[in-house]
What does this fold into?
Amino acid sequence: GLPVTPEQILFTAGTQNGLCTALLTLVQSGDEVLVPDPYYATYEGLVAASGATFVPVATRPEDNFHVTAQAIERAITKRTRVLLLNTPSNPTGAVLTQKEIDEIGAVCERHDLWIICDEVYADMTFDVPFCSPFDRPQLRHRTLAVSSISKSHALPGFRAGWVASHPDITPRLVLVAEAMLFGSQPFIEDALAVALNEKHPEVERLRLAFRERAETLIKAFEGSRAITARMPEGGMFIMLDVRRTKLTGEEFAWQLLKEHSVTVMPGESFGNGGAGHIRIALTVDSNILRDACSRIRTLADELCKENR
It folds into this structure.
């Protein structure tokens, strides 16, 4: 990415705190925030806390849940102020391409919208490069890039993150942040500096482990007539399409837990766009994943037989 100065960085207590600070700084009651759907489960609450209105923008499983510039532009009204992006996405694993970011950015320029980009999985892309609107010179002045070391360095308990923005925006962010977090622990800030300024092989090992587990899961559902599994482009989650079982994602998740002792998140937890899907976390080793996938496939096959 492009270099930044200290005047462009706000230290935050993780990505969640950074997103909350950014939204409280940029919007007020009556404004609208556009969010691609499916979306991370806390986004709706974050927007509600800011007083703004949450406006989901539909994506399609067939497009690997990539949001389009056209869909965003159709959702814009006179009250729209912010577009909240998440790349790589939790829960879908979608990673926006440079072309998509440029097209989306052009829409934001035409309508004078702010872009908040949740980039907490930036170090976890698989076969595609990570691209940020903050790295595009024409978009940098309207973009707030939010991230942390929670996922890349497996340190969620440190609550060490940041918001990168235009230097004119940082003082406004500070005013809001001070009301929530009046200072932080120096040893955590020191750890963050070491994490970002030095290369650590553990970061790459984590990325490769998540990719290997995703490939293991995809292989487990090869040939399935009941479940569609699409390889994520990044992140640490994968979405399974269970619509052919005739159950909702929530119904499938509960039945899976009760009958096969496997816990997953229903896709409906992440908006209407996740309906008929379940989300699996790639945070356990491949042997456990294989066993879980076998149980998931067994249930899905049983349900499809019942529906014939």
The two ends are 53 Å apart (CA to CA).
